[in-house]
Amino acid sequence: MSFTFIDEQLAQQKANNLDRNRVVLSQSTGRLLTFDGVEYINFSSNDYLGLAGHEAIKTSYINGIAQYGSSSCSSPLITGYTKAHQQLEENLADWLNAERCLLFSSGFSANCGVLNTLGQDASVGFHLDKLAHASLIDGAFNSKAKAKRFRHNDVSHLEKQLKSTACTSNLVVTEGVYSMDGDCAPLSAIKQISDANDAWLYIDDAHGIGVLGDDGSGTAKAQDLAIDNKVIQMATFGKAIATNGAVVAGNEELIEYFINRNREYIYSTAISPALALATNASIELCKRDTWRREKIQKLTELFINKLDNSIAVTATQSSIIGVIVGSEIDTLYCAQHLKELGFWLTAIRPPTVETGKSRLRVTITSNHNDNDISTLAESINEVIGKCLQNN
Ligand SMILES: Cc1ncc(COP(=O)(O)O)c(C=O)c1O
């Protein structure tokens, strides 16, 4: 019988409380979402700056559809590249302080595309942070390069790896902000070690873009990292920027190389021109509305201050806070009870996080208010308290 593992693995996932299910929302408008006729305060959205419903973005989208239609209808090297895409790439290069940019249809494909293209043989070494996103792991380990992981944010461990590598071209792969902990990579220290060992640096800033830096351009700006031609940045549009797609920013030759050799770029339909226009409008708001970043910071401080001291939280420097519960079953219990109190939070379990570190992932956005945050913290105190009593 073919594919008997499908049923077996599904059953195993269920037995281990690790089965994954989608929920069908009837409405999701920033701060609130509606599921099965009930309204919840949404603390699971990546719309960090609260821009998904912004009129300026919607208008640009609609105008883009009126001008270009609903799709690019082609890959970028055929007829899928328009003035809207070109303008977006130029604006992004300016914002990210890079020589050039290239658009991808998602962050997942951008990460896989870059690592597959650069990892062309075993002379290339990839050095990934232990907590790097699935798309970076897949891109690196499915390539022909030698891929290794270093302990999370452990610069000495990275240095050891770089000093002992036999690879002649090396790329250090980090995130700006880590998606399940909300902490940042120490980019300046990592860059120093990379430079000292003739390695390039790749920063996936999916969760830093829009949220960090005085102009919202991300973690590198927030940490005063000078962007030179050995830094590659990747950012997704589906989170703070509130559209869809992704960008890779790097030096002139690298981007030209990707246009010629990156299979994910070459053989995939370009994002729609309307989406490019909407993304351009969003970037202007990200740069301009510093109050959104300031509000996230204030609300995050309020949330942490209101939590009981006994509750473990991750060392956040962003919109993301991991409230550590521990076991999968306890985390599911807490998420379910918080839902009954009107809060929508996702239980994050292995393999997304380490076994024993299952957590509630709280994302704070500029759409939330002080009352949302205070009542959430009080409810978490109560629910986790009850859960620990039951153990
Ligand atoms: C760190 C990180 N990189 C890449 C991605 C993938 O981006 P996208 O959703 O645009 O495919 C995500 C999204 O979950 C992410 O968290």
CATH topology of the largest domain: Aspartate Aminotransferase, domain 2
Name the CATH superfamily assignment of the largest domain: Type I PLP-dependent aspartate aminotransferase-like (Major domain)
Strand pairing plus helix content: what structural class? alpha/beta
Main pleated-sheet profile: 7 strands, mixed
Low-confidence stretches: none
What's the SSE pattern? HEEEHHEHEHEHEHEHEEHHHHEHEEEH
Secondary-structure blueprint of this entry?
Blueprint: H1 5-15, E1 25-29, E2 32-35, E3 38-42, H2 55-68, H3 83-96, E4 100-104, H4 107-118, E5 124-129, H5 134-141, E6 146-150, H6 155-164, E7 169-175, H7 187-196, E8 199-204, H8 219-222, E9 231-236, E10 246-250, H9 252-261, H10 263-266, H11 273-288, H12 290-306, E11 320-326, H13 328-340, E12 343-344, E13 346-348, E14 358-363, H14 370-390
Parallel strand pairs: 3-12, 5-6, 5-7, 7-8, 8-9
Antiparallel strand pairs: 1-2, 2-3, 4-10, 9-10, 11-14, 13-14
Helix pairs in contact: 2-11, 3-11, 4-5, 6-7, 12-14, 13-14
The site of pyridoxal-5'-phosphate has 13 residues, from helix 4.
In short:
The protein is α/β, with parallel strands linked by helices and 391 residues long. The chain is 42% helix and 18% strand.
